[in-house]
Design goal:
By secondary structure, the chain is an all-alpha fold. The protein has helices at about 5-10, 25-35, 50-55, 55-70, 70-75, 80-100, 100-105, 105-125, 135-145, 150-160, 170-190, 200-220, 220-225, 235-240, 245, 255-275, 290-305, 320-330. The protein is about 60% helix and about 0% strand.
């Protein structure tokens, strides 16, 4: 069915705006949200933090995250104080792996970097980490929280397989990639928070898949500028859309139908994750704050009628820090 018809009905992507009027946070809370470290602009950058000796390895990880994964940076700031530095280390590790693909000109070089991180993880669990800031902080996190090595290696292995510039054959392949990267990251975050719960793991699995799908959508204009398209081929074929349509920034109804179907799958995963809300320990909720940013993007893409190239989708939401803070205060995800 065409997206134009589905959008007029109560389809899976009919997203409601969360009502902020049920419980009004105290005025002081609104003010405190803007005083969180890093929620205002900073002149420092990763370039300034290129030497661990300048800022220290912990600060290096924070600056790397602030520059390369701002939403993850904000979510990490709202974790309990005892878990924050470990979360920064974990997400900085993920950033290091994620940027390999775009920073190398040859696959062989990318494989060498992945091999470095495999050896680094092995050395971390032998208490012999290399003198690299992210590796040092990750070692501290592993020692502090006894993190599962298997999840770290899964992230590396999946990122390594993704070095090939190939589109996902189907939505399930994209979800598998997200499970082994984004969901694995959440499983480790739950370990940092001291949460061992089956319902929390189920929620993490769905949120990670939603994150992977949304990330793929958000990156489509950037990939298109480099003449690459990674959207699931099965959905493109279903609507008679070719990769060339995305490279030419075609805005026909069929192209929007593709985006609608993919975005609907992300929304469905969020819905499934929230169905465990009453069973998930409250202690786990801070790990799932990224749902705020995911839902914000899905609402924005709905407002522009699933035009993946609309300029508004590339703009940063200046109210996101406040939205995250309120969600954290309400103990929701």
């Amino acid at each position: 069915m065409a997206a134009s018809v589905l959008r007029s009905a109560c389809g899976p992507l009919r997203l409601g705006v969360a009502c902020l009027c049920r419980r009004r946070p105290p005025r002081s809370l609104w003010a405190r949200a803007w005083r969180l470290p890093g929620l205002v602009g900073s002149a420092r950058s990763v370039a300034a933090a290129s030497g661990a000796g300048t800022l220290g390895s912990d600060r290096y990880c924070m600056e790397l995250l602030r520059k390369r994964d701002y939403e993850g940076y904000l979510c990490s700031l709202l974790l309990p104080a005892g878990s924050r530095s470990s979360a920064f280390a974990l997400r900085a590790f993920n950033v290091e792996l994620a940027q390999v693909k775009d920073s190398v000109s040859e696959k062989t070089i990318g494989l060498m970097r992945m091999e470095f991180w495999k050896k680094t993880v092995d050395d971390i669990y032998r208490d012999n980490p290399p003198q690299q800031p992210v590796a040092l902080e990750l070692w501290k996190a592993v020692k502090r929280h006894n993190l599962t090595k298997r999840w770290l290696m899964k992230i590396i292995d999946e990122r390594e397989k993704n070095l090939d510039d190939k589109a996902y054959r189907n939505i399930q392949e994209l979800e598998n990639y997200a499970e082994n990267t984004q969901s694995a990251l959440l499983y480790l975050t739950l370990e940092i928070l001291g949460v061992k719960d089956l319902h929390a793991d189920h929620a993490a699995s769905h949120i990670g898949k939603a994150q992977g799908i949304v990330t793929c959508l958000r990156a489509t204009p950037y990939h298109g500028s480099r003449r690459r398209v990674f959207l699931p081929m099965d959905i493109c074929m279903l609507h008679g859309v070719s990769q060339e349509d995305f490279l030419r920034k075609n805005q026909d109804k069929n192209v929007r139908d593709v985006i609608y179907d993919i975005a609907s799958q992300a929304h469905l995963h969020l819905k499934h994750a929230r169905s465990f809300h009453k069973s998930v320990p409250v202690k786990a909720f801070p790990a799932f704050l990224q749902t705020v940013a995911l839902e914000d993007y899905l609402k924005k893409i709905q407002r522009v009628d699933f035009d993946i190239f609309h300029p508004s989708l590339q703009q940063k939401n200046s109210l996101l820090p406040l939205s995250l803070y309120i969600q954290s205060w309400r103990n929701r995800y």
